[in-house]
Amino acid sequence: MSIAILSKILSIIVLNLVLSGDNAVVIALATRKLPASSQNKAIVIGTAGAVVLRILLMLIAVELLTVPYVKIIGAILLFYMAYDLLKTNGEETEVKSETTLLSAIRTIIIADLVMSLDNVLAIAGVADGHFMLAVLGLIISIPIVIFGSQVILKLMDRFPWLIWLGALLIAYTAGTMLVEDHFIHHLLRGLSNGHIVSLASCVLLAGMYFLFNRKKS
Description:
- The protein is mostly helical and 217 residues long.
- The chain has one domain.
- It is built from 11 helices and no strands.
- The protein is globular.
- The N and C termini lie far apart (48 Å).
- Pfam families: TerC.
- It is a multi-pass membrane protein.
- Its main location: membrane.
- This is TerC family protein.
């Protein structure tokens, strides 16, 4: 396995861990009021359903990114997502606790589906058209998210730079996706190194974050 493929898989895992902190909260909240005997069932069945839907979404996203100009739209959405991740500090959704096994499973699947739309786009961008790489990254990282959700959330609280790492990785992916669009690639054909645009996206993200934060304070 080449270093390039390994780096893509690692990037997918890191992205999924950082972006799935709120998904871990959903699982914890949805199953909190269930009997202990039903909690594990709800987590396993709900997560299995969520994984299947994520893989289907991933397949659609990978195919969509081959359509002309879609990568430009995707890059804009990813850049906004990176900024929003920093602005909200990785905190998002509130979910009510369920009291029955089926309702908890339903809540986990639906909430994960809604919150995973942006995650899937980011991961599809990193995978760069390699569907199996994206799936492999998901398969490796999802069990970590589920069974280590509390650890992940505590780490993100203790080390805020992990959120920055995820946001910068998304911004870099947005820049790469933008350059890889046929129209933009044609405009920038004189640019010898596309990584310059990707790195510029990271600098722009940091600049925007500090500029808007300074205005608020």
